Structure formats: structure tokens, C-alpha cells
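Fill in residues.
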């Protein structure tokens, strides 16, 4: 749809201005730094950073109804830079020229309501938000679209060359980072650090296919993260993990899309998100608070974080009900099918703590909670979801298990409507499904397959197979009749008439 075809009162708002005054702001000491350099922690106190727009008041001059119309009408524009997460340009990177934006089709993933059977079984109305339908098949593309657009902007304005983008990953981050870096061609080289043996073959194939330099090291994700953090402090590299505040900013778009889906009415809604490195739940909280600041949403939904019992430092932190007595203690993770959540030292935890304080102040103490689920529940709920028409990954199974745990605990009630986050495509974790079907999980995973969820192919063989080739017409007819009878018997079919 062309700009001139929109209502006159909204036309001037649809193409965003390049404006704003974005800075890095230290979460602890409050020191602000210019965004003209790659910065991940505060040089003064070494705390994590958030992005702040010092000219944010300008967007407050637009009333909430007009913002609703801006976002809704932008959906109809045929402008590539506004097709992805930068539909919310003013809230993600207001200083970003549209021709610097990298959009590979990320964002605006479908919300698929669970069927009646599954909702009755779970005990609440809910949707899966299918983040696996992003370009690299996970939610990480949201953050990479913002981080690589910013990197593209910096490269262009400062005429940089030989930039190396690096990340630690359990799979999805490396796939997204390599994909978006590859789109920038010779401007950016990509390298990823993976924990050896802890990434599925499907996930490993993605950065390799995109041309990234893939380095595997012993240990788990937390060990890889320590290495890339040290590299970002001492070498000229662009860090693409969620310690990069642009990653968080891009992932805020998830919250904006949920709000837009419900026509900006989030009363009685619940958002369920798995917690890994805590970047995603940070982004959801921050995005909701920013929309609430402007009255774009009047009510804040409940936000439920989910962790596996095998990697549960955030759950343990919030088990202490007295905020004054809470102490964050990293944990040593055990093997988990929810590999993206297998993190014992989430780097965004300081952001979570600060944002939850503000979120609870505005929406009440019951507006945020963290629940714990077992590996058995994760696998069972992934298979349950996918047997009812979804494409949930293991983290999606973790989210559904978390919703059910929250319902049992009374944290969520049956009259509320939930959005359950399926962070990646089911096919990325197909190996765990096969292990379930084959009953081949190592004991440390603590997963025992339920027969009703197991599924295997059944081989049908004809009684007589000609050894020569090609078959005669009579032999082909005999084979076909034999197979028809066997298939009919296997499926319990009845003849017509």
C-alpha cells in the first residue's frame, strides 16, 4: 500500500524520523556513554548496560490511540526496513536510518491458539507464539536484527573494516549471529564458540552453513561465555551475546507484537517465557514497561519465567519472598533437553532484578513469578503440544510445562489468557524427540518415555519380492495388492459397501 493511500492524519507518522538521543546507561552507577563505540559493560564499575533515549519525551507527545494506528498502518507498508522489528523504530533504534536497517524477515511471528482439547487438558486458554518461524528458526533473530543493524550503522558512519563479530552459544545465538553477519558480506566476519557436544547437529549446521568460524571448547555455555566476555574486554571484537544491549532492545519487539495482537489490551493476559541467559525475559519486561510508560497499553500482564530443575538459579533467587534477603548464586547445570536454557550464570540477571522491582511496583507483587519444571515435564509437554498441531521446541515444552505448573500453584488462574513462548523450531531439537521415541536418554537427563507419546515407523514387507528388475506388470500388481492388504490391516480399515 502506498503512503498517499493512508488517512492524511497518519501519513506524517508512518515513515519514522531519524531522531532520538540514544546512550548506554550503566544499570548500577548510572553513568552514561555515547553509542559511537562498541560497549558491553560499564568502564567505571563493570556492571551491565541498558540503552536509554534521552529524548524519549518526544514520543510522549503522540497519544496512545495514534500510536496504535501508527503500528497498525505500518503493517501495510511495503518498506523492507519497517517489515521486521523496526516497525517499532521509535522504541528500538530511533537514531537508525532506514537504509542501515538489516531485515531478513524476522519478527511478527504467528500466535497460534491451542485447540479445544489441549486447552481443556491444560485448564486455560492459551496461544503458542511460534518464534521458530523467524529466519534462522529462533527468537534470537530479533536481537540480531537490532545488533547487526547497529553494527552496520557504526561501520558506515565510522568507515570501519575488518570487524569480527563473536558470540558464545548453545546453538540458536550462533545460528542467528552467523546468518545476519553473512548478510553484511565482507563488512563483518563471524566466529562462534560452542560447548563441545552440547549443541544439536541441526543447530551446529547453521553457523557452518553461513560461513562462520566455529570453535568448540570443553565445558558448558557458561564456560564459553566467560571466554567471549574476556575477548570483548581485551580485543577488537563485536560481542553478540545478550550482554550486548542492542540484543535486548531488538528482543523487546516480542512484547510489542503480543500487545498489538491483543489490540493493546493486556488485562487478564499472561506471558510465559523460558529463562536461559535471562536476555529474553529482560526484553519482555522492558518492552512492556516502555509501552506502559506511554499508555500504549494500560494494563501490564503477568510475566512467568520458567526454568528446568537442571538449571534454575533464577527460580532459586525468587524462592526467597523477602527481597532484602535474596542473594543470587550461580549453579552448576546438569544436562537438559532445553539446551538454550542450560545456563547457570545468566549475564542479564542484574537487569532482571532491577526490572522486576519496577514491574512489581507498577503491577503488584503477583505480576511476576518464576516456576520450576522437570526434564520429564519439558519433553512430555513438547510432544503433547506437537501432537496437537504446534511446532514447539524443547524450550516451548518448557514454557507449556511452566504454564501448567503456574496454574497448579495458583499463580495463574483459569480465566486468564496465556501466551506461551516457543523460542525455536521443533526441528532444531529433533534429536531429543528421537531419543524419547527410542528410550535412549542417558540417565542424567532423568527422562523416562511415556508409551502414549512414543512413535516409530512400522516396516511392512511383502511376502514375496521378485529378485530381478524390472518387475513384470503381473508382479507389480501382486506387490500392490499385498501392500494394500497389509496397510489396511495395520490401520484397521474396513472395506466399502
Amino acid at each position: 500500500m502506498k503512503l498517499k493511500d493512508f488517512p492524511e492524519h497518519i501519513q506524517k507518522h508512518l515513515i519514522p524520523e531519524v531522531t532520538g538521543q540514544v546512550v548506554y546507561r550503566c544499570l548500577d552507577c548510572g553513568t552514561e556513554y555515547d553509542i559511537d563505540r562498541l560497549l558491553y559493560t560499564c568502564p567505571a564499575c563493570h556492571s551491565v548496560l541498558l540503552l536509554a533515549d534521552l529524548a524519549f519525551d518526544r514520543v510522549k507527545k503522540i497519544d496512545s490511540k495514534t500510536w496504535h494506528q501508527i503500528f497498525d498502518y505500518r503493517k501495510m507498508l511495503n518498506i523492507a526496513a519497517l517489515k521486521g522489528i523496526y516497525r517499532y523504530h521509535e522504541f528500538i533504534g530511533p537514531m537508525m536510518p532506514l537504509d542501515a536497517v538489516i531485515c531478513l524477515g524476522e519478527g511478527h511471528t504467528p500466535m497460534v491458539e491451542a485447540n479445544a482439547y489441549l486447552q481443556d487438558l491444560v485448564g486455560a486458554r492459551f496461544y503458542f507464539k511460534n518464534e521458530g518461524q523467524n529466519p534462522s528458526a529462533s527468537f534470537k533473530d530479533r536481537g540480531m536484527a537490532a545488533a547487526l543493524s547497529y553494527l552496520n550503522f557504526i561501520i558506515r558512519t565510522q568507515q570501519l573494516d575488518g570487524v569480527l563479530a563473536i558470540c558464545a552459544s548453545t546453538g540458536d545465538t550462533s545460528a542467528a549471529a552467523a546468518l545476519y553477519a553473512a548478510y553484511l558480506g565482507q563488512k563483518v566476519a563471524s566466529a562462534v564458540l560452542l560447548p563441545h557436544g552440547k549443541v544439536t547437529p541441526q543447530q551446529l549446521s547453521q553457523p557452518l552453513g553461513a560461513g562462520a568460524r566455529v570453535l568448540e571448547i570443553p565445558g558448558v555455555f557458561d564456560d564459553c561465555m566467560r571466554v567471549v566476555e574476556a575477548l570483548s574486554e581485551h580485543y577488537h571484537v563485536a560481542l553478540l551475546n545478550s550482554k550486548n544491549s542492542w540484543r535486548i532492545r531488538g528482543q523487546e519487539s516480542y512484547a510489542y507484537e503480543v500487545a498489538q495482537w491483543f489490540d493493546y489490551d493486556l488485562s487478564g493476559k499472561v506471558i510465559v517465557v523460558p529463562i536461559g541467559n535471562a536476555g529474553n525475559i529482560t526484553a519482555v519486561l522492558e518492552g512492556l514497561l516502555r509501552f506502559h510508560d506511554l499508555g500504549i497499553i494500560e494494563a501490564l500482564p503477568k510475566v512467568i519465567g520458567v526454568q528446568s530443575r537442571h538449571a534454575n538459579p533464577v527460580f532459586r533467587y525468587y524462592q526467597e519472598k523477602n527481597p532484602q534477603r535474596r542473594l543470587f548464586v550461580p549453579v552448576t547445570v546438569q544436562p537438559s533437553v532445553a539446551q538454550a536454557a542450560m545456563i547457570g550464570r545468566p549475564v542479564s540477571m542484574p537487569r532482571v532484578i532491577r526490572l522486576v522491582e519496577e514491574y512489581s511496583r507498577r503491577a503488584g507483587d503477583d505480576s511476576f513469578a518464576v516456576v520450576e519444571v522437570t526434564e520429564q515435564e519439558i519433553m512430555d509437554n513438547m510432544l503433547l503440544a506437537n501432537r496437537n498441531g504446534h511446532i514447539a521446541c524443547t524450550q516451548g515444552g518448557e514454557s507449556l510445562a511452566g504454564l501448567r505448573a503456574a496454574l497448579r500453584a495458583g499463580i495463574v488462574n483459569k480465566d486468564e489468557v496465556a501466551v506461551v513462548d516457543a523460542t525455536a523450531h521443533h526441528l532444531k531439537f529433533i534429536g531429543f524427540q528421537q531419543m524419547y521415541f527410542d528410550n535412549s536418554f542417558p540417565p542424567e537427563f532423568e527422562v523416562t518415555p511415556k508409551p502414549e507419546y512414543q512413535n516409530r515407523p512400522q516396516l511392512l514387507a511383502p511376502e514375496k519380492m521378485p529378485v530381478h528388475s524390472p518387475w513384470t506388470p503381473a508382479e507389480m500388481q501382486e506387490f500392490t495388492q499385498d501392500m494394500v492388504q497389509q496397510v489396511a490391516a495395520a490401520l484397521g480399515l474396513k472395506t466399502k459397501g
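The first strand starts at residue 22 and ends at 26.
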